[in-house]
From TrEMBL:
Top-rank taxon, per record: Eukaryota
Keywords: Coiled coil
SMART domains registered for this protein in UniProt: PRY (SM00589), SPRY (SM00449)
Organism expressing this protein natively: Cyprinus carpio
All copies of domain B30.2/SPRY, residue ranges: 101-293
SUPFAM superfamilies: Concanavalin A-like lectins/glucanases
Protein name: Tripartite motif-containing protein 35-like
Length: 299
């Protein structure tokens, strides 16, 4: 409950901040436009005052003797011909409403992508071994060394330090990247929904994985002995790609674009990602995906 409330509070705070930023920008433009109109009105007032002064001077000349007025007639005529131009609204005087209201929801949503992450796999705490510690966002796991207060439900591992993904995959193509850097004992792979999780038989059948232990990499699939994998460099990230319809599971290094191994099998039930870790110093981390926006016209 606490984690859920904190996540929503982050989103609410983001929206409050965005509202404040946009309202502040709107007020700033409003002040600029008001100042522009104020200066324009002051200019018109000065022109009116100048014209009034000229008219007053001409009236005084008319009230004077005829000879001085005739002597200054040319100058008086020029002053009398001064006119005020019709007020013209300066360019940019109106508020640019479209800048603030146009596609407002889309603009805010697009900016929200800076704080929102999409993780292709989230871990299921109801399956985690009691010695595993999961982060609040359910993307990191490591062996804690101290038992967690988890109930002994049927879904939970009680022998191997494993945890499953929260969603089973029963169609389509999927992939996810797991950061394994510095973790000294791990397994990454998939298993079937019906696979027994209690006791020490989990890795005997229904599991496809790559394992790192004692400085050695091996791959494993059901009913076959582990196969040694030769790598030039230690893995930092491992990618798992599942083609459920095509019956294929592939492992690779996405940083070097190096293929590790591929298994084929006809699947008849949901497949679940799983992680195993007995390292207490460094976690395994499911990496978020890079998001992009593809805008297309509606037809």
């Amino acid at each position: 409950m606490r984690c859920l409330q904190e996540e929503f509070e982050r989103l609410h705070q983001f929206l409050r901040d965005e509202e404040m930023i946009r309202i502040s920008a709107l007020k700033e433009e409003e002040n600029q436009k008001s100042q522009m109109m104020k200066e324009k009105i002051e200019q018109i007032d000065r022109e009116i005052e100048s014209l009034s002064n000229n008219l007053g001077t001409i009236k005084n000349d008319l009230d004077a003797a005829d000879m001085p007025f005739l002597q200054n007639f040319k100058f008086s005529k020029e002053r009398a011909q001064i006119t005020l131009k019709d007020p013209v609204m300066p360019a940019g005087a109106l508020m640019n409403v479209g800048q603030y209201l146009g596609n407002l929801k889309f603009k805010v949503w697009k900016k929200m992508m800076q704080i929102v992450q999409l993780t292709p796999v989230t871990l299921d705490p109801n399956t985690a071994h009691p010695l595993l510690f999961l982060t609040d966002d359910l993307t990191h796991v490591k062996s804690s060394g101290d038992g967690q207060q988890y109930p002994d439900n049927p879904e939970r591992f009680d022998y191997y330090h494993c945890v499953l993904g929260s969603e089973g995959l029963n169609s389509g193509t999927h992939f996810w990247d797991v950061e394994v850097q510095n973790n000294t004992c791990w397994s990454v792979g998939v298993t079937t929904a019906s696979k027994q999780r209690k006791g020490g038989i989990f890795f005997d059948t229904g599991v496809w994985r790559v394992r790192y232990m004692a400085g050695q990499y091996t791959s494993q699939s059901p009913f076959l002995p582990p196969m040694h994998l030769t790598l030039e460099k230690r893995l930092k990230v491992i990618r798992v790609q599942l083609d459920w319809d095509g019956g294929k599971i592939s492992f690779s290094d996405p940083l070097t674009n190096t293929h590790l191994c591929t298994f084929t099998r006809t699947f008849k039930e949901a497949i679940y990602p799983f992680l195993y870790s007995s390292c207490t110093d460094f976690p395994l981390r499911i990496l978020p995906m890079q998001l992009s926006i593809n805008v297309k016209p509606l037809h």
